[in-house]
Structure formats: structure tokens, C-alpha cells
Amino acid sequence: MTGVVDAVRALIAPLTRTRVFRRVIGPALLPPVERVVAWISRGRVQVSALLVPSLVLHTVGARSGEPRDAPLMYTPDGHGRAIVAGTNFAGSRHPAWTANLLAHPEAAITVRGRRMPVRATPIPDDERDAAWALIEAQWPGYRNYERESGRAVRLFRLQPVRAVAGGA
User: Residue 50: what pLDDT?
Assistant: First the structure.
């Protein structure tokens, strides 16, 4: 199965670096497809998870206070934590979920149908290159989104925490 995934990645990875993908396919097509597949599978299947480790981030809106969900690629850091990057398909603005984590770092993630509480911490400047190296080992060229966006992409480390009675 790994060979098939690697072959599909090799075909799709160059597409994700194109302007058409970053401006149209990624932001306009992927989110609704992810929502439909999640609805049909009752949250057990993520389209992006067919190619890379993926999770659904459950946050609280920074301004609205309403629950928000965002399907994201993540990179394991080798210490039981996940690294997520707010690339926003190389857009000039940070994705809303990054503002949500800055305002409310206590969040939850769902990975392979299992929900767990996490605490998000921004990755400090002196650790960014190491984090990007891990991310690019998983998806080569991904840091180009940062270069093309004209902004420093927000990187977060998601640390699993023990659930508190009555909590997430």
C-alpha cells in the first residue's frame, strides 16, 4: 500500500505547487469535498489522509466563540506531538484557525476517528527551520507556500493533554 501512496503523492505533489491549485483547486474544491466525505463517513475518512497524515482541528472561533473545524495536514514531531502549518494555500492571509489557536490554545483534534484534547503552542523562531525540515521530509516543497505567501506562516505544535471531566 505504501508504494501506491508514494506513487499517487509523486503525481499529486507537483500539482499542489501550481498557481491553479493554490488559488482555485485547493481553497475552493478541497474544503467542500472534505466536508462531504466526512459527512458520508461520519468523520471516519478524510480525503487528504489518503496522501499525508491528516487531522481535523476543533477550535473555538477567536471572535465568534463558536466551534470551528479545520481539516489539516500534520507532521508527527517524533515526540507524540503534531506540527501544523497555517499555509492557507500560499495565500497572503493567515487562515482563521491560526487566530483561533492564538486566542484559545486549548483545542481538540480527531485523527483516524479518535478525538483527543490538545494544547497548541506557536513554534518559536529558533525552532522554525527544524520544524520545516520535518514537514518537508513528509511533503517536499511545502515551505514554498510560505515563500510565495509573502508572510511568515504560523507553525503550531499540538501537544495531547489529558481530558478533564466534562471537557473535550
Answer: 62
**What is residue 93's three-state secondary structure?**
coil
**H/E segment holding residue 161:** none
Max Cα–Cα distance, the chain, nearest Å: 46
Domain coordinates in residue numbering, the chain: 2-160
Q: In what order do the strands lie in the sheet with 114-122?
A: 67-73, 54-60, 106-111, 114-122, 155-160, 82-85, 75-76
Contact 34, 71 (CB under 8 A): yes
Phi, psi for residue 7 in degrees, rounded to 5 = -65, -45
Whether pTM exceeds 0.90 = no
Report the SS3 class of residue 154. coil
CATH entry 2.30.110.10 includes domain 2-160 = yes
Residues 31-67: pLDDT tens digits? 777 778 767 877 666 666 666 788 999 999 999 999 9
